[in-house]
Predict the structure of G-D-S-L family lipolytic protein.
Amino acid sequence: MKKFYALFPILGLFFIACSDDDETPSETTPTPDPIVYTSGSADFSNYVAVGNSLTAGFSDNALFRAGQEASFPNMLAANFALAGGGTFEIPFMADNLGGATINGQTDANMDGAPDIGNRLILLFTPDGPAPTPKTGVGTTEITDKLSGPFNNMGVPGSKSYELLAPGYGSLAGLAVGAANPYFVRFSSGEAATVIGDAAAQNPTFFSLWTGSNDILLYATSGGTGTFQSDPMVSPADYARNDITNPTVFAGALDAALQALTAGDTDGVIANLPNVTDIPFFTTVPHNPVPLDEATAAQLNAAYALYNGGLLQAQGFNLISEEEVAKRTISFTAGEGNAVVLLDEDLTDLTGVNPALINMRQATEEDLLVLTARTFIGTEAVVGDPTTINGIAVPLADQWVLTPEEQANIETALTAYNQTITALATQYDLALVDVNSLLSELRENGIPLADGSTVTATFATGGGFSLDGVHPSPRGYAIIANAFVAAINAKYGSNLPGVNPLDYTGLYID
């Protein structure tokens, strides 16, 4: 301000001195030439996206309009529009609640169908922030058919082989759990398949990202299903939480690509992330139990008989010293006590002593599922403090992924991703390494232009939604940019990608 005021005494002289001068020419900054975006050797004029919930834009445990608008295929379509891309039609839900009815009933979820409840929001309770379903009744009626075709063919809950299943969008199939309610809304007919409806649009470019549910449903159920090792077993005989046989997966993916590339169509496919990298399995620690000295002593006394029975079993050479150590249960006063859980891979001793059930305490190698955070510490029998779940009552299989169950996941994932890489080469497609991307997100985070970093930390990291499984809009933007990079590298296009900061890391309401 002092420099500004000091100008006043000389202003008069300045105007006099300049009165006879020619006007000083102003300098202008030249406008840069606009960037011209090109598609390279690809043709984006009719883009069709095929996949599951990750393609549909599922977030916060629901499919809803804002999430569909923030789906990675919609982001890709906006980029494609800069280089000759056409319109991108989406089978929108009716509102932003995400919940839906079937024949007017809100509790009509069919066996094998994905949940159709309202999306989660973060409520602040006396016990801390809690993801809670948003109140209200969704206005989406599953049986109200939409008029297609639609470019986003992402079907939440679908497995790889279900994309090829006739009747997967059948109204009649809903009654027997043979149809998917999301596909029912926009399938072309009762006998339609997802791949058939996608291929019938004669796409000039496609994305295919499928297979995560072939593993994920096993994982999120705590490994309650079976790894289907026999390729001759029909998927029709699978339980919903089973891991798809890798040969069956390979056949389904190959058949899907044959249909989508029938017109010599270009496209992009993505490999699968390790589900153990997502917050659903990395949020709840194995040792969340604080105890005072008296309670720890009481618990140790209660488990003394069990521990003694293990030593007796060792004495009869029924189990090894190593297994005794693994199964021995002990609590201490203070923080960091591990939960007690059931483990079907332990030696079954109940034939000798019914009290020696297959239980042990968790270790760092066990992965507790996100939903266990509100279950551990509750009473199995309300009002009875001797029935505390995870302490006095062992956690059932559904609450934890043991190392053996994680090994099943790793075996399937490795096989699936080898297949995806091989088929990308066979069909000459762009390949996105989402596995490495989400591993990096978990290990180090993804830095953004404003200096912030997106991480995989539950609720606060910005990369994942409140269900702990599906990305947030910002997470989807990071994935979209990985797709764009792969497409540019393969086809010589120069698409700009999207700015993740334009998308929220967490829906506020």
In short: The domain at 47-282+404-502 is CATH 3.40.50.1110 (Rossmann fold).
